[in-house]
Amino acid sequence: MENRGKQNETPTTITIKGILSLLIANTEAKDTNKKVISLGIGDPTVYTCYRTTSNVQEAVVDALRSNKFNGYAPTVGLPQTRNAIAQYLSRDLPEELSPDDVYISAGCTQAIETTLSILARPGANILVPKPGFPIYGLCAAFRNLEVRHYDLLPEKGWEVDLTSVEALADQDTVAIVIINPGNPCGNVYSSNHLEEVAETAKRLRSIVIADEVYGHLVFGSTPFVPMATFASIAPVITLGSLSKRYLVPGWRLGWLVLSDPNGIFKNLKFVERLKKYCDLNGGPATFIQAAVPTIIEQTDEAFFRKTNNMLRHTVDICCEKVEEIPCITCPYKPEGSMAVMLKVDFSMLKDISDDIDFCFKLAKEENVIILPGIAVGLKDWLRITFAAEPTSVIEALERLKSFCRRYSNVQNGH
Question: Where does the Aminotransferase class I/classII large domain start and stop, copy by copy (predicted)?
Answer without folding.
Answer: 34-397
